[in-house]
Write a structure and sequence with these properties.
alpha+beta; 55% helix
């Protein structure tokens, strides 16, 4: 038999469940993009530029076992950009921050990129407070999409949290009111 009060209760509970799954998707998106977005924001706002030299270029391995090990070593990076992570060259770049000792930054060059020929100078943007946070200037724009996705995910997280709290409070209030009947 149809009971309108139970239907209303089910409807409110269904809204909470839907919002829960939206929250899981938003949290997954934040977890996937937070590091590159944070690096982009820090380096684009507070970064300084230094000239670096490519010290070493390592070709990617063609051995399937080594590829699997590389994927296991950093599953999030493998999931985000599989092509670059598995087939891109690894560059080791040496640079000297304004008043410090030489620092090294390791960078995965995307396939087809001509950045970083051995022995040639390359512009490195680094964070003065922690020079280990560094990236080649020409590839910093690769993180711009991650920063936009992260900003959208943060906005979606705030909206989802607000809607989830409102739905939960409404559901609790409805259940409390139903006890009187």
């Amino acid at each position: 038999m149809f009971n309108p009060k139970e239907a209303a209760d089910d409807s409110r509970a269904l809204n909470i469940v839907i919002l829960f799954f939206v929250a899981v998707a938003v949290i997954f998106s934040i977890g996937l993009h937070f590091d590159s977005a944070l690096k982009y924001w820090l380096l684009s706002k507070f970064g300084e530029t230094a000239t670096g030299t490519v010290v070493q270029i390592s070709k990617p391995s063609t051995d399937p076992n080594e590829m699997r090990d590389l994927a296991r070593k950093s599953p999030r990076n493998y999931l985000k950009n599989r092509q670059t992570w598995v087939t891109g060259d690894s560059l080791l770049i040496e640079f000297q921050p304004g008043s410090g000792a030489f620092e090294y930054v390791s960078f995965k060059r995307p396939p087809g990129s001509t950045v970083g020929q051995a022995g040639k100078a390359i512009d490195i943007i680094y964070l003065p407070l922690n020079p280990r946070i560094a990236h080649p200037r020409v590839h910093l724009a690769d993180f711009a999409l991650d920063a936009k996705i992260m900003m959208g995910s943060l906005i979606a997280a705030m909206i989802t949290f607000w809607l989830l709290v409102e739905a939960f409070v409404s559901w609790i209030r409805f259940r409390k009111t139903m006890r009187h009947y």
